[in-house]
Amino acid sequence: MIDQEPRVIDKDQSYPGNTLVGVHSYNDNGRIVELTPDGEVAWEWSVPDSRVFAVEQLNEETVLAAVAVKTPAEDCDEEYLEYENEDDHCVHNRVIEIDKGANEVVWEYDWYDEFIANHEVHDVERLDNGETAIADMGDDRAFTVDRDGEITWEWHAEDHLTPGTPFYEEYGGPEKDGEHDDWTHMNDIDYLDNGNFQMSIRNFDVMIEVDPETDEIVNVVGEPGNHSILEEQHNPHHIEDEGTMVVADSMNNRVVELDVESQEHIWRYTGPATDPLQWPRDADRLPNGNTLITDSRNNRVLEVSPDGEIVWQFDDRGGNVIPLPYEADRIDVGEGSDAPSGYELTALDDELGPVESLIRWGEAMAQYILPTWMHLPQILHLVGIVLGTLWLCAEGLVVGWRQIEIGW
Predict the structure, then answer these.
(1) Mean pLDDT, to the nearest integer, of 175-186?
(2) Mean local confidence (pLDDT), 297-312
(3) Contact call for residues 172 and 147 (beta carbons, < 8 A)
(4) Are 89 and 117 in contact, with CB atoms under 8 Å apart?
């Protein structure tokens, strides 16, 4: 077993402040963790059998979070048990506001869905008017609610992304295959300075901008199936003043910044050659030009300078503190437009070749089966042992067969 203690890098170039992390987890042990620059846990909140996704510190006292709780069948209404799943359950999706001092939920909006896989609530955002914007993956919708829990606006992808709609006729995309299909995998919603909502439609490889007055799609970034631009992205950060967007380009294992109009990459980061990103799911440009990245399958949150140097890092390969992190926010830093764009940074980063990408993907996926502390060297060692054992077994069978033949 390798050293499972988190490794921390903290250099003078890092942007000040603690970091709030929403932890998805591998085994429904989700949590919210606040990390100090030196890697200490300053605050933590959790609920059993959960996955935590978006987190946002609203003020010194409260945190807003998107939480999905896997709920036993006996605690679910019958309407959420009609679809058979491998271990009978439903999911309790919760948008919650937590008082950090008391560790208590002080406001909540919730609903149930039939199962947790691909039906979790992934993103929430508190608006200036006190309402909350929510991306509901299971029902392929985006909506806003007020403090009393009344829905004040609602947008359904089925009305705008299906065959026959203007979007589909121009861009295409996957078609919905049944009521419970993971069709859009809508995983992010952001309120823009111009009053529109930006939504990440992961399974379409696009971000769309929607005018809430008309519900029409007024801009599209990305192209369904064109993975040279984006593939199954998460958590775009739109730097509106500069006309660019920083995106966790998850299935391409990189963070990219695109010019929204031309859709060209103007900045890209794939990680160190010896330790590349694996399924990053969040990337925020900080006011000093650094970029905060949530490197999910490496159980790591890192901050890189404009030229790609790691200036802060919480590397938890053992998965003790942030197993499979989803999102990280530097506290007191919003996702506004007061951050420099990639045009002011450095050249594009190199990308991994297809063979190395495949090897690294296999290493990351092994964490769902093997202990999280096992990485490429340990996995290769294990493979060697297994192959050696199989070879010895095969040799034994051959020798045994020959002895039987001689005996005959």
Answers:
(1) 91
(2) 95
(3) no
(4) no
277's tokens: 């990103």
List C-alpha distances in Å: 170 to 13, 160, 162, 163: 45, 12, 11, 10
What distance, in Å, lies between the first and last C-alpha atoms of the chain? 49
Q: Is 302 helix (H, G, I), strand (E, B) or coil?
A: strand
Q: Largest alpha-carbon pair distance within the chain?
A: 89
Tell me how long the chain is.
408
Q: Is 404 a residue whose pLDDT tops 70?
A: no
Q: Which of 205, 209, 210, 166 has its CA nearest to residue 185? A: 205
Q: Per the structure block, which two tokens stand in for 88?
A: 């009978």
Report yes or no on whether pTM surpasses 0.90.
Answer: no
Q: What is the mean predicted confidence (pLDDT) over 34-52? A: 97
Helices 376-407, 354-365: inter-axial angle, 10-degree rounding: 80
Element (H, E) at 168: helix 166-171
Beta bridge partners of 336: none
Question: What is the residue-averaged pLDDT of the chain?
Answer: 89
State both tokens at 242: 């500069």
The Cα–Cα gap between 178 and 270 comes to 36
Q: State both tokens at 197.
A: 């909502």
Spatial CA neighbour of 145 closest among 132, 155, 128, 163: 132
Q: Could you tell me if residue 205 is left (phi over 0), alpha (psi between -120 and 50 degrees) or otherwise beta?
A: left
The residue assigned the tokens 């202990």 is 371
Structure token pair of residue 98: 């937590």
pLDDT in tens, 313-363: 999 999 999 999 999 999 999 776 578 888 877 655 565 555 554 555 565
pLDDT confidence bin for 180, thresholds 50/70/90: confident
